[in-house]
Design a protein that fits this description.
The chain has 335 residues and is α+β, with helices and mostly antiparallel strands. It contains eight helices and 14 strands. The strands form three sheets. It has an eight-stranded mixed β-sheet with strand order 1-2-10-7-12-5-4-3. The chain has a four-stranded antiparallel β-sheet with strand order 6-11-8-9, with no helix packed on it. A hairpin with a 5-residue loop joins strand 8 and strand 9.
């Protein structure tokens, strides 16, 4: 029976390290990725203290006057770094669908402590290891964000190992494809707007994610994340206080030749009659393989006589093209 809702999966048995526990988690993850492309994970081993510290510092940043936030503006449309204000991006354009700007503001970082080696230079890597942009006067902000980026990278590696087991591959199959990952950590604030909303304007328009997987720490405010299930119905992603929402992205769907699905999702506005301030804040880690990894159909996902549905694509090229469309409202040229 196909899942039409987002399941909650306890990672504890995987971390226990037994073959049985790992197989149990891999089986549940495989069904979630095949049926709906989303899951909520618990017992993930990320310290609560770190999450709360990053969340609090993020609130402090978004509470700054606009002039202060603008000092950390994104340098270029293809650089996923720094601040972006409300309605300055439209995720729908990454799907080549026109829509008003999304009702959110964001702050983004990429890899930290980047080695001074040619592989990581802009000449070879393009914008994927660009320097991060930081707020000027928020003590502890840079350290907390760097710690969180590292912790999410570790959790993503664990999830990719679970994915490998679910796909009947060696557990460490993806390790050398994500050891120089070009991921992005992005904090988001969705203000609770009660007027001035355009027709069809959402907190985040319907889209799929670009990379291998996404790890989200949402809060419980009204106006949350919804997923389009196999029946074409929008269903709410359950809020679990200590859980993370995980979904697979376009590259994982291509790797699996559509056996797993990168699911359309959106962030809706609060109901018009919502009481109080339903401002929402989320911490989102977009995991992306090494820029030079060629994503092509996995051997375990191609039945005899079948042909791959996608041409091979490099992780870096795929990410850059999608993000530029999102930040330039459908344009493709980088100013």
């Amino acid at each position: 029976m196909t899942l039409q809702y987002v399941p909650i999966i306890d990672l504890g048995p995987y971390f226990d390290g037994t073959a049985e526990g790992k197989a149990e988690v891999a089986k549940a993850v495989n069904q979630a990725c095949r049926d709906i492309g989303f899951l909520v994970i618990t017992e993930h081993q990320i310290p609560k203290e770190l999450i709360e510290r990053v969340y609090a510092l993020t609130s402090q940043f978004f509470d700054l006057p606009m002039a202060e936030k603008r000092k950390a503006d994104r340098p270029r449309p293809d650089m996923v770094r720094g601040y972006s204000a409300v309605a300055e991006e439209s995720l729908s354009y990454s799907m080549e669908e026109a829509a008003p700007g999304d009702l959110k503001e964001s702050f983004s970082i990429g890899p930290t402590d980047v080695p001074a080696e040619p592989y990581y230079s802009e000449a070879m890597a393009g914008p994927h290891f660009a320097p991060n942009v930081w707020p000027a006067d928020l003590p502890g902000f840079q350290q907390a964000y760097a710690e969180y980026f590292e912790a999410m990278g570790d959790l993503a590696r664990t999830l990719m190992r679970i994915f490998a087991l679910a796909l009947e591959l060696p557990e460490t199959f993806f390790d050398d494809k994500i050891d120089k990952h070009i991921s992005m950590f992005r904090s988001l604030r969705y203000p609770h707007l009660k007027e001035g909303i355009e027709e069809g304007q959402l907190r985040a328009g319907a889209h799929t994610d670009y990379g291998s997987l996404t790890i989200v720490k949402p809060d419980g405010a009204q106006g949350g994340l919804q997923v389009c299930n196999r029946d074409g119905e929008w269903v709410d992603v359950p809020y679990v206080e200590d859980g993370f929402v995980v979904n697979i992205g376009d590259l994982m769907m291509q790797w699996t030749n559509d056996q797993w699905i990168s699911t359309l999702h959106r962030v809706i506005n609060p109901p018009e009659d919502a009481a109080g301030d339903q401002q929402r804040q989320s911490l989102v880690f977009f995991h992306q393989p090494n820029y030079d990894v060629m994503v092509e159909c996995l051997p375990s996902c191609l039945a005899e006589g079948e042909t791959p549905r996608y041409a091979p694509v490099s992780s870096g090229d795929h990410l850059k093209s999608k993000f530029v469309r999102q930040t330039t409202f459908g344009g493709s040229k980088v100013a």
